Amino acid sequence: MRGTAGFKQAQGDSLRLPTDVLPGAYRLGREMAGSEQPEPSERVVPAILAAAVAMVVAGVAVGFAAGHYSARTTTVTKVVAAGGAAAPVGAKVSPTVAAGAHTFVQFACAECHGPQGRGGVSPDVPALKTVGKAMNVATLTRIIDHGLGESANPTKPYMPVWGEVISKHQVSDLIAYLHAGLPAVPTAEPVPVPTGQGAAVTGAALYVRDGCINCHGPNGLGGVPNPQSPDKTIPPLSGADFFKEFNTDKKIADVIVSGSVLGRAPIVSMPHWGGIIPPDRVQALVAYIKTLKSS
């Protein structure tokens, strides 16, 4: 290669420098006093000068080679998606599809259908890679708005009724994401769950990751409208009334596992989490809820 040859040639030249490229002071020193041998101190100066010139020439050659190679170097960046799959470099999605990916995570679709809808969470919950593409807009809208599953069996997952919580715009974004094949979108990933920091810390992350915050509000304060329900809102998970009714760990855990499925859209229903959230994480959620306001 041109750069390699140039670098090697420069190294060879630095070892055989002709006297005509040396400073005039050095040539003058050799010509002085005819055949008389110079004193040792007179021989040191020419040696130092010659070494300095050699270093300059070699430095120029190295600089050339470095610039030559850097000009040919290309940096390749890979984006690693959730689950370890590398997205193609430069792959882009539309803003609508990207928004749908983030909504998919925000509303905990990934917790039941798996990252990017790949399934594998529960045998009762389908993967969406193929199903999502096959269904038309009307069918997918109806399922998202009205829920799906066995509402009477708390041991089986039940997709919640989202109609009063998710906007039409968000539903449209979700459907665009499904029809696009659920591609990897950078940062559209569930909140990481800490370990070794106590059950309440784990539970706080799960409260967001599992979508509890979407309906019960930050810090379990509630206030999300549910117009067709008797209370007109989704109940809070804090306050005196809540902790009076759910006054033991078991009662809180039971309502998480069994949900509160009325099965009548558009009433928002809490899903059955028993077949999705493992027992240790249910207990972590209980620990977090117990830290919320009790009065």
Give the tags.
3 domains, two-stranded antiparallel sheet, 295 residues, Cytochrome Bc1 Complex, Chain D, domain 2, mainly alpha, 13 helices, 47% helix
Task: Outline the structure in words.
This protein is globular. It folds into three domains: 2-71; 93-179, Cytochrome Bc1 Complex, Chain D, domain 2, CATH 1.10.760.10; 199-289, Cytochrome c-like domain (Cytochrome Bc1 Complex, Chain D, domain 2). It has 295 residues and is mainly alpha-helical. The longest helix has 32 residues, at 40-71. It has a two-stranded antiparallel sheet. A two-stranded antiparallel sheet has the order 3-4. A hairpin with a 5-residue loop joins strand 1 (79-80) and strand 2. The protein has helices at residues 2-13, 24-31, 40-71, 95-106, 109-113, 131-134, 137-146, 168-179, 199-209, 212-216, 240-245, 249-258, 279-289; strands at residues 79-80, 86-87, 148-149, 158-159.
